[in-house]
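Researcher: Structure for this, please.
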Amino acid sequence: MSPIHRINPAELSPPAGFSHAVTATGSQLVFLAGQTALDGRGDITGSTLPEQFATALTNLLTALRVAGGSPADLARVTVYATDVADYRANAAELGRIWRRLAGRDYPAMAVIGAVRLWDEQALVEIDGVAVLP
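Model: Predicted structure, token format:
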């Protein structure tokens, strides 16, 4: 049985690409550092938000996998975007990328606008918390 339980009350607006609340009971927490579209050499790849989002999410999921987890173990994810309007404009494509890489088990999520990220060319950064059984 999964240690993650997603809660989406009928009284709240229907969630699209996130869960309103997540409870977790497990034996190990995994705190995932913010990931951008850095490649193995340390260079930002991709010039569009969807390209960078796919790489950043892949990087996050790689760290999670090596720590012993899977996308279904994600309890909380925060997305930092340098252009929230661009994020909203690309929401459908970003959702497709999420489903392709992480599936349909959505964690509690937030998108936060950031003036800039550590790497000046980065358009998006993703961090998270997972709970392993």
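Researcher: Any notable elements?
Model: Strands lie at 4-7, 21-24, 28-35, 74-81, 108-113, 124-132. The longest strand covers residues 124-132.
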